[in-house]
Automatic annotation (TrEMBL):
Keyword Disulfide bond: no
Glycosyl transferase family domain mapped to chain residues: 229-384
Keywords on record: Transferase
GO molecular function, one term: glycosyltransferase activity
Highest taxon listed in the record's lineage: Bacteria
Matching SUPFAM superfamilies: UDP-Glycosyltransferase/glycogen phosphorylase
Name by which UniProt lists this protein: Glycosyltransferase family 4 protein
CDD domains registered for this protein in UniProt: GT4_PimA-like (cd03801)
Length: 409
């Protein structure tokens, strides 16, 4: 079996999928956009320019030989530049156009003569899947996010409680011409032979939308490498969150809960890492033990996990949530919303704590419990780390291939 993988991104789990096929001698080509490989002379020259070097480092993929790559970088470079300089709406339009162009290019390139299967991803695969269907190429489709119908229902329900917190980016996601994008995604799902999800929550969102359960397979993403160094002891008890600070991530609920926690002011802190996309008024009146750190380098985040007390992920709807696996691999206990991969990763009250999405009372209760049961919390962190050791990226890659081969057979 020879498989082509197509994705405009070279994100961590996309790389793992490509490696999964490569290490089993099944990879034909990886179709992508803008990436960095030491053997690529042009990108090696670009890496000498300081502001480009940072972007290239983020897109580095040198685990497979350069001859396995096929790429079209220009539109993705334009999208990356627009994200820094232009409005969210213009950036979104460039992203949409770039994804369509990428899909058409892949569709023109693939052929049954060279491949038996194509591994695609949501929104950038419609023409590719049509070509696969026409040539009888087995179509693997990865649904990385919650189905749009359930996502919209959850967010709109939450907005009834917090109508003043709607932002431009949220309006874009919910109302600004989403019909065409969502119709495209639904057609992609229909054309796929198998739909891979990274969480049971995503799978259930597809079933609610009418997708046959027999067509769906859940393969949770692997844990990153486990950090073996010991935590530094701190007198301050630190609750932390990392990721975009947005409405759909439930950050407004976390801040509201923090204002109601009856904990010693001088012994607890809330640390928030990531870009802030909520109205500034939410920060008004917050106590001084809440700290916003903005975006930081991933390497720094690994150290921060080590020096925190508990990770809080109150998301309203998330297809996976890689920060959960990162925290657990660092031995950091996690309080996580059930509307994510958390139920697939965490045994409640054994190696972490699960909360109902959108429930302020449930989150408050679990945060209070964490502070008042530090010894039990420490044991949870140790068990979480053990779980991470047993399901790392190699185990994920093995499960992915086995899942696909079982469907093919």
């Amino acid at each position: 079996m020879k498989v082509a993988v197509s994705n405009p991104s070279v994100g961590p789990h996309v790389k793992q999928n490509v490696i999964a096929y490569f290490e089993r001698n099944k990879l034909h080509k990886f179709f992508t956009t803008f990436f960095y490989h030491p053997s690529h002379k042009f990108y090696s020259l670009l890496s000498r320019i300081k502001f480009i070097e940072k972007e290239l480092r983020r897109r580095q993929f040198s685990s497979i030989p350069i001859n396995f790559f096929e790429n079209k970088p220009i539109l993705e470079i334009l999208r990356s530049l627009s994200a820094r300089q232009l409005s969210a709406k213009i950036t979104d339009l460039i992203w949409y156009y770039a994804e369509l162009k990428f899909d058409k290019w892949v569709a023109k390139t693939i052929s049954k003569k060279n491949i038996d299967a194509i591994h695609t991803y949501e929104h950038c695969a419609l023409e590719t899947l049509k070509k696969a269907k026409k040539e009888n190429i087995f179509a693997i489709y990865e649904q990385t996010s919650v189905h749009h119908k359930l996502f919209k229902k959850i967010i709109e329900t939450e907005l009834i409680k917090y109508p003043t917190l709607i932002t431009t980016s949220l309006k874009l996601a919910l109302y600004d011409k989403p019909e065409k994008i969502n119709a495209r995604k639904d057609e992609e799902i229909m054309l796929a032979d198998i739909v891979i999800c990274n969480s049971s929550f995503t799978k259930n969102s597809l079933i609610i939308a009418g997708v046959s359960p027999s067509k769906i397979a859940v393969v949770p993403l692997g844990f990153p490498e486990v950090h073996l160094n010991h935590k530094k002891k701190k007198d301050t008890f630190i609750f932390m969150y990392a990721g975009n600070l947005t409405f759909n991530k439930g950050i407004h609920i976390l801040l509201e809960v923090w204002n109601e926690l009856q904990l010693p002011f001088d012994k607890v802190e809330l640390h928030l890492y990531g870009a802030y996309f909520l109205p500034e008024k939410l920060k008004l009146g917050l106590p001084k033990n809440v700290h916003f750190f903005g975006n930081i380098r991933h390497e720094e985040l690994m150290d921060i996990y080590q020096n925190s007390s508990v990770f809080v992920n109150p998301t309203l709807a998330d297809g996976f949530g890689m920060v959960i696996t990162e925290a657990m691999a660092s031995g950091l206990p996690v309080i996580a919303s059930k509307n994510s991969a958390a139920p697939d990763l965490i045994i409640h009250e054994i190696d972490g704590l699960l909360v109902e999405a959108g429930s302020k009372d449930d989150l408050l209760e679990k945060m209070l419990w964490s502070y008042n049961h530090k010894d039990e919390l420490l044991q949870m962190g140790l068990k979480a780390k053990l779980k991470a050791q047993n399901y790392g990226w190699p185990a994920y890659r093995k499960k992915l291939i086995e899942t696909i081969e079982s469907k093919l057979n």
